[in-house]
Amino acid sequence: LGASAMYAYQFHNMQVVADQNGWTRFSSMQCHYNLLYREDEREMIPVCRQYGVSITPYSPLASGHLTRPTWDSDSTRSTTDNTMRNKYDHDRQIDMPVVERVHELAERLGVPMADVALAWHWAKGVAAPIVGCSKPNRVDDAVRALDVRLTPEDVDFLDELYQPHELVGPKARPGEKPLAGTDRVR
Asked: Among residues 96, 105, 177, 181, which one has the fewest Cβ atoms lying within 10 Å of its Cβ?
């Protein structure tokens, strides 16, 4: 049983209610989590760890931003996907140093940047990042990343430049104003 796109307190409450009623607990949380957006490390991931819930993050490659050393791309998705741009472009200046770190480590290890970004997830205890594959060979690329092992020093190198972001994804409850960052339009 999986859950997605909610506040940590809501997920915690749902687990408590399941326990109180003898229902099946949630066993998987699909959340927005990658090297450029780590806000769920504050609350959601600790709740998941408390309940032994697998983390299956979407957008593990930050909509392609963790697959190339430059921010911009002329791909169809990069030029037409407003949702992607609204999630990431606002924080471009604080995120580019992280992208540069991924590029540097990938070069040092002799692997593609995507492999480093996915290996970071496994180093963080993620069970299965949800990788969107626009081409069949992308599946093989994602599987190849399983062979990359990051050291604790590598993980620290990738983590140290991260700066907190406004929340992106959770929606306001009825009658409340949207959270900062969730009502941005381009």
From this structure: 177
